[in-house]
Amino acid sequence: MRPPVLSGAMEIWINPACSKCRAALSVLDAEGAGYTVRRYLDDPPTPGELRDVLTRLGLEPWDITRTGEPVAGELGLASWPRDAAAREQWIEALAAHPVLIQRPIITAGDGTAVVARTEEAVRSVLPR
User: Fold this and answer.
1) How far apart are the C-alpha atoms of 85 and 107, rounded to whole Å?
2) How many whole angstroms separate alpha carbon 45 and alpha carbon 6?
3) What is the pLDDT of residues 43-81, one digit of tens each?
4) Is 12:36 a contact under the CB 8 Å cutoff?
5) What PROSITE patterns has UniProt attached to this entry (predicted)?
6) CB hemisphere CA count around 61 (13 angstroms)
7) 54-72 b/e with 16+ CB inside 10 Å = b?
8) 21 catalytic residue (yes or no)
9) Alpha carbon distance, N-terminus to C-terminus of the chain
10) Are 59 and 90 in contact (CB under 8 A)?
């Protein structure tokens, strides 16, 4: 079981092999931001955590799905409906196959979250 992320703390979901993740960590470090790293491939989010993050992002599961991954092809994601009726199916697929989750994702202590693929996106969740 993971320790809870403290209120006010940031968590960043990363794949250490990802250059965008390393760049996001560099920005956080340069700004002296406090954060917790979650290697989401080793510690996949639960469906409930994904629902929470999606709410915080204001996105749907297909919006954060890496559809170019081989497993996306194996699952036939390209043909899955992108509607409310299929939402849980997408969430379950992301939970079962975390490699499909877009990265990095930062959840901020103020309740916001961002897919932090650019420096601007990372900076958008830093405390002012």
Assistant:
1) 26
2) 17
3) 999 999 999 999 999 999 999 999 999 999 999 999 999
4) yes
5) ARSC
6) 27
7) bebbeebbbebbeeeeeeb
8) no
9) 32
10) no
Give the pair of three-digit tokens for residue 70.
């081989």
Which parts of the chain fold into alpha helices (H)?
Answer: 19-30, 47-57, 70-75, 87-96, 119-124
Question: Tens digits of per-residue pLDDT, 89-112?
Answer: 999 999 999 999 999 999 998 889
Catalytic residue among 18, 23, 59, 126: 18
Cα 21 to Cα 95: distance, rounded to the nearest angstrom:
20
The alpha carbon of 56 is separated from its chain's Cα centroid by a whole number of angstroms, namely 11
Cβ–Cβ under 8 Å, residues 89 and 80? yes
CATH number for region 10-124:
3.40.30.10
Instruction: Output the pTM of the full model.
Output: 0.89
